[in-house]
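for the writeup, i need someone to sanity check this before i put it in the appendix. the sequnce is what the collaborator sent (i think, or maybe the updated version? ugh). structure was predicted straight from it, no edits. if anything looks off just tell me and ill rerun, i have time this weekend
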Amino acid sequence: MGVILQVENNKRRRFEYKVTLGKDINGNLLRKSFYSTKSRGDAKRKAEKFKAKYELELLCGGEQLHAKVLFKDWAIKCIESYKKPYVTASSYSGTYLAPVQNHLIPYFGDSDLNSIRPIQVQEYINQAAQKYSPETIKKDFTILSFIFQQAVNNGLCQKNPILSTIRIPKVKRATKTAFTQEEYETAYEFAKQHRNGLSIMVLMETGISRSELLGLKWKDIDIGNRVIHIRQGLVSYQNSDNNAWITAESALKNDYRRRDVPLIDEDLIRRLEQKAQSNATCEIGVSEYVFGSPLGKPYQPNNWRNRIYVPFMNDLVNAHPELPMLSPHELRHTRATLWLAQGISPLMVAKLLGHSDVRMLAKVYDHTTVDTLRNAILASKNSTPTG
């Protein structure tokens, strides 16, 4: 539908006809004007001829004739519309917004969606492979494919340049280190005497994650029944609105992560009792977090790592140079490995760790050595009643 206008131009009448071609990514009407000095009908005929060609080009997949849509404009709008309302703030910030802002927009940002070809996607991946891990490239590739597919679905892009022929680096599962039983006992004894050892003892004995450890509240620990209730985690993410870093409670990844983990070690139980009593009489106020900051607030995960965990590991390795320096996640691997070696069924280990897939234990968490297996067999034989 068009609008006919009559204007004066150099003392000659000029007729204008405006035609609507569609909408842009913000929902605004895309309109184009056509002029004629002959008649209103002539301006209208020009407009209708153009619109017919335009619609035919769209139908046949030809070059779009409306205003360009830049990748940087659509990418942000796409994830804000399709992802932000349906995931947690931390997931949106880390999984979607950060890769788009830090990797994809710097490379594709000023390009028209319709000008990006598969070869450019492959060139991006080839360059990124020189700087980033295969896991990071796979994440970028997945998000890029989603952005283009939604652009196609919304009529902003004729073809998705993400084709099956594009090659991405294979993700190689990182090799994790784990303590042997003997190394575990050495590290655990050291933690008992260390000023920052209690949180390490909890990680080693229960196999919970760093996020779950820092999210523990005193109401989650039942000393009387000797059990820890895992109900939430603590995460740090960048606010998508003002870029400020936020530390907040986060829901667990799935229902399997919501679990109860028994407390067995008497020294650990006693240390937790002592910390609970100390917290109740703390001069700066009672903290609801078991392992909060010195001010009783939630510990930002990286701050806890730098101020508590790394100093502990440095002290441990200085005192026992034969021990490997493990990450918090590798302590979780250690606990799973030793449980399996001790004869606890994979189903029970999966339940203790909060996993839904027992097969993952064999592929990821089982770092059992020959010596660990030998000790487990000997322990089993020694505990077998003789007839």
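The longest strand covers residues 12-23. The two ends are 97 Å apart (CA to CA).
thx in advance!!
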